[in-house]
Amino acid sequence: MQIELPSTVQALLAALQAAGFDAFVVGGCVRDSLLGRTPGDWDICTAATPQQVKAVFAADRLLLAGEKHGTVAVLRGGRSYEITTFRLDGGYSDNRRPDSVTFVPDVERDLARRDFTVNAMACSPAGALVDVYGGRDDLAAGVIRCVGDARERFREDALRILRALRFAAQLDFTVEEHTAAAALELRDSLQNIAAERLFAELDKLLAGPAAGRVLASHGAILAGAIPEIAPCLGCAQGPGHIGDVWQHTAAAVGALPAEAPPPERRTLLWTLLLHDLAKPACRSVDKTGRARFPGHNRRGAALAGTILRRLRAPAALITQVPELIAMHDMPLPADDPAVLRLLARCGPQTLRRLVFVKQADLAAHAQTPAAVYRRQEAERFRQAAERLQDACYTTQRLHVNGADALAAGIPPGPAVGRALRALLERVMDGALPNERGPLLAALDELALPPAKDAPHG
Ligand code: ATP
Ligand code: MG
Fold first, then answer.
1. Is the pTM of this model over 0.85?
2. Full residue range of the structural domain in which residue 382 is found
3. How far apart are the first and last CA of the chain?
4. Which pLDDT score is estimated for 173?
5. Does residue 132 sit within a domain?
6. Same domain, 261 and 316
7. What letters, b where the CB count within 10 A reaches 16 and e where it falls short, cover 53-75?
8. pLDDT tens by residue, 54-98
9. Nearest ligand 1 atom to alpha carbon 163
10. Residue with the nearest Cα to atom 5 of ligand 1?
11. Residue 3 lies in a domain
12. What would the pLDDT profile of 196-217 be if each residue is shown by its tens digit?
């Protein structure tokens, strides 16, 4: 297959070649092109040193933050293109960054430092593939395999352990046996990796189309990044469940409905990943011998908050995920007054998310009559919440306001708010229509002195 290079990339490669330096596109863009996918970014590697790259592109705007490691980024057409000198990585004393880099003249040696065979291919401007590690065969077979000795590679940089799972989830590949064994053996070294980098890889893993399968197969490896996963492995559940807590978790991540819109998916996937992590700590066995997990919602919400803060997740996730986990197991009401009160408490967006969480959670249960009933319950609730989302469940939506309350004779101060909330309760109960006439009459009634106050619902 011929790799089609965008014209800007062709121009950058041609400029380097014209100055006498070998240059290739390399890594993810070659992998994605061979898979028939559109690459996210185009990385270039070259024999030119950073000094020489800067001279070739003297007329361009350059970003030099990575210069020490051999990378000069050229800005063209609003995008940046990283041009990195062929290099070897020196020793790794901290498990994450090379202590030093050494520039080398040939592309083959540069490919040797790359993580996986499918990421270790380069392509010349003429379209010749440089594939010394069998990346193309591994792409065809759907395999993530370390370049060289897996244990050595994971010792150099533990983040690669998580990257292996991430690419498997993104590409729907399997992790080659030796690579998986080394990842398992060295999983605890993930603790030496910066939290932000762990988060970024986990986030991409979860968004991958094969995330459910990868989680199910490699829970023990993931426990190196999130130790709270370990007690879930083998934690047995009741007969309504398929497998242990971790198998259920993996299945729930894999069962997120396709209709869940992209901006919501991240919140939902993290919620599903973390939703049952408190089960092992809450497990008890009742008189009939059945496993129960009382309180795992609340404890799970707190645990999720702790984990997400530790991973330095974005603030939105740290608030949204625990909120959903705290509610993930509660029964959903079907009657309008109760649905309106939930809308008032959580807002329509959180409830929409909650329904997706429930659908995925329940799809990952054995399809017992109870599970089927709860899925129907979730669907009825979804319809009711949607129908009622513009209904009156806040005092702002009442067709009377504070001025009306004062005009009716309610004394200024907190009594005004109390009166409006009393009206709202009656409107949500369906006992009073949200129309000015009846609302004003109700306000008049509330304003009467207590002695003459007529009882009301
Ligand atoms: P993505 O589509 O996620 O950007 P990518 O393959 O481009 O995928 P990057 O993280 O952008 O991934 O890295 C670019 C290339 O650099 C990889 O394809 C790989 O060759 C190499 N690489 C990146 N991180 C590492 C690492 N930790 N160890 C070894 N090689 C790495
Ligand atoms: Mg990339």
1. yes
2. 226-388
3. 75
4. 98
5. yes
6. yes
7. bbebbeeeebeeeebeebbbbbe
8. 999 999 999 999 999 999 999 999 999 999 999 998 766 665 567
9. 27
10. 28
11. yes
12. 999 999 999 999 999 999 999 9
Q: Is the CB of 39 under 6 A from ligand 1?
A: no
pLDDT recorded at residue 454: 54
pLDDT tens, residue by residue, 331-365: 899 899 999 999 999 999 999 999 999 999 999 98
Q: What is the dihedral of CA 157, 162, 166, 169, to 10 degrees?
A: 140
Q: Which of 80, 114, 153 to mutate to test the pocket of ligand 1 (most atoms within 8 A of CB)?
A: 114
Domain boundary among 159, 193, 225: 225
Q: Which atom of ligand 1 is nearest to the CA of 29?
A: 7
Same domain, 230 and 378: yes
The residues, ordered by sequence, that sit 6+ positions from 266 with a Cβ below 8 Å of its Cβ are 203, 206, 207, 317
In short, whether 30's Cβ falls inside 6 Å of ligand 1 is no
Contact between 110 and 104 under an 8 Å Cβ cutoff? The reply is yes
Counting the structural domains of the chain, the total is 4
Hey, which of 115, 132, 192 would you mutate to test ligand 1's pocket, going by the most ligand atoms within 8 Å of its Cβ? 115
For residues 370 and 403, state if they share a domain: no
At 426 the three-state DSSP class reads: helix
Considering the domain architecture, whether residues 120 and 165 belong to the same structural domain is answered as no
Q: Residue 191 carries which side chain, given as an amino acid letter?
A: Q
Residue 40 near ligand 1, beta carbon < 6 Å: yes
Q: Are residues 242 and 374 in the same domain?
A: yes
User: Of all atoms in ligand 1, which is nearest to the CA of residue 204?
Assistant: 3
Q: Tell me, what CATH number does 106's domain have? A: 3.30.460.10
Atom of ligand 1 nearest to the CA of 120: 20
- Residue ending a domain, among 81, 112, 136, is 136
Nearest atom, ligand 1, residue 111 CA: 20
Give the CATH number of the domain where residue 187 resides.
1.10.110.30
- Identify the band that residue 41 occupies on the pLDDT scale cut at 50, 70 and 90: very high
Cα–Cα distances in angstroms (integers) from residue 345 to residues 101, 293, 349, 394, 423, in the given order:
55, 26, 11, 10, 17
Which residue has the CA at smallest separation from atom 17 of ligand 1?
27
Residue 284 clears pLDDT 80, i.e. is over it: yes
Q: Considering every ligand atom, which ligand is closest to the CA of 118?
A: 1
CA-closest residue to ligand 1 atom 9 = 28
Instruction: Judge if the beta carbon of residue 114 lies within 6 A of ligand 1.
Output: yes
Are 191 and 271 in a shared domain? no
| 384 and 431 assigned to the same domain | no
Find where tokens 């209709």 sit. 259
Nearest protein Cα to ligand 1, atom 22: 114
